[in-house]
Design a protein that fits this description.
The complex is a heterodimer of chains A (about 120) and B (about 110). With about 120 residues, chain A is an all-beta fold. Chain A is about 0% helix and about 55% strand. The model of chain A has no long low-confidence stretch (mean pLDDT about 90). The chains are: A mainly beta (about 120), B mainly beta (about 110).
Chain lengths: ~120, ~110
């Protein structure tokens, strides 16, 4: 079974631009979560989607948004990029059975975003 | 605000040594604690703990949770250079379906 895939793997953008990152979960996984990882702040939760609905959101500004499609693929968008948005963005998927989530989240390889 | 603290922040040992990594937490409505290993890529899942006192074991790695004292430990015996990585502890709490991560422990195993 293929793992979580993320595209692109690396991205360089300039301040003020916007960016869209993509995540394809493991087949059958309908829950997709996004995390930002930086050396200073560690891994921080951005948001989680399930069945095309955002179920939970972390403490990030509105410049960070996301969506999920009917095939469970998810995208996250960051508008008006700032230097501090440079980070590794990780996507993770997990399986839910009858409303009960198996807590194991499987992470993708991440997208390394550099803002100059 | 949920908080997860890991110690030590970094650790350097020699092959064959045994190490213990610590994770303490302060959360509301604890649900589970997870351990991940992160090398130069995405975190990979190691263990999920929900009940106190029940040891989870996988090869040379083992972990246990103490819900009364609000901590967990991850033990690695007979360490190998391939164990060198950042070990992350995360806690899921309340109705939120999010993980709060600690800052990680950087383990370096020297030959």
């Amino acid at each position: 079974k293929a793992g979580v895939t993320q595209t692109p793997r690396y991205l360089i953008k300039t301040r003020g631009q916007q960016v869209t990152l993509s995540c394809s979960p493991i087949s059958g996984h309908r829950s997709v979560s996004w995390y930002q990882q930086t050396p200073g702040q560690g891994l921080q939760f951005l948001f989680e989607y399930f069945s095309e609905t955002q179920r939970n959101k972390g403490n990030f500004p509105g410049r960070f948004s996301g969506r999920q499609f009917s095939n469970s693929r998810s995208e996250m968008n960051v508008s008006t990029l700032e230097l501090g948005d440079s980070a590794l963005y990780l996507c993770a998927s997990s399986l839910e059975i009858l409303g009960a989530r198996t807590y194991e989240q499987y992470f993708g390889p991440g997208t390394r975003l550099t803002v100059t | 605000e949920d908080k997860v603290v890991q110690s030590p922040l970094s650790l350097v040992v020699h092959e064959g040594d045994t190490v213990t990594l610590n994770c303490s937490y302060e959360v509301t409505n604890f649900r589970s604690l997870l351990w991940y290993k992160q090398e130069k890529k995405a975190p990979t899942f190691l263990f999920m703990l929900t009940s106190s006192g029940i040891e989870k074991k996988s090869g040379r790695l083992s972990s246990i949770l103490d819900k009364k004292e609000l901590f967990s430990i991850l033990n690695i015996t007979a360490t190998q250079t391939g164990d060198s990585a950042v070990y992350l502890c995360a806690v899921e709490a309340g109705s939120a379906r999010q993980l709060t991560f600690g800052s990680g422990t950087q383990l370096t195993v020297l030959p």
